[in-house]
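Let us practice reading a record.
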Amino acid sequence: MLIVVIYYAALIILLSPYLGDMKLPVRVYGIVISFMFMLAMHMLFIKNKIAGQWMMGGALLFVISDSTLAINKFYQAFQVAGIVIMLTYGLAQLFIVEGVGRYISFNRKE
C-alpha cells in the first residue's frame, strides 16, 4: 500500500505546478484512483488467484492510462500519448472483464 501512496505523491508533486485551477479536482481524482488500486491489490489474495491477477492487472493498466493522460495534459504532451492512453485503457477494461468473468465462473463451480 505504501508504494501506491508514494506513487500518488510523486505524480502530484510533478503535476502540481502545472495544474492551475485543476489542482483540487486532480488531487481528489488521484486519491480516488489510488484507493481503487489499493482495493484491487487485495484481489491478489482471493481464492481464485488467476481472476485476482487479471483484475489487479487491469487496475494497474487503468492507473497507467490515467497517469499518462495527466502527464500528457498537464506536464508535457508527447507524440504517442494517445496510443499509450487508449491501449492501456482498453487493455485495462479487457483485463478487468476477464478477471470478473473468471471470478464468477469459478464461484459458480463451487
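A brief commentary: The helical segments are 2-15, 23-41, 49-75, 81-109.
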